[in-house]
Amino acid sequence: METARAWLDRVAEEDFGAGLAGLPEDAKLRDHGLDSLDVLELTMAVEDAFGCEIDDAEVGDIDNVTVGRMLDLLERHAGLRRA
């Protein structure tokens, strides 16, 4: 089974052209090519891929979502191991 990190890195690259591989967990997605709409779409991709629903409050400030925050969401809602 794919890890949360592998899933995030793959989808960010394939769907948004954003290279997140190797970035630390405190890296903000917006600083690496994902704007707020992209983060929203990435969250929706998690929901679609894993049949879950993620509350906006769990995502937090859409402009300051980090790699680590997305990994938290993938662990919690998709049941993926972090690494």
Automatic annotation (TrEMBL):
**Pfam families assigned to the protein according to its UniProt record, in alphabetical order:** PP-binding (PF00550)
Q: Which InterPro entries match?
A: ACP-like_sf (IPR036736), PP-bd_ACP (IPR009081)
Which protein, by its recorded name, is this? Carrier domain-containing protein
Domain Carrier: where? Answer: 1-78
What species does this protein belong to?
A: Piscinibacter sakaiensis (Ideonella sakaiensis)
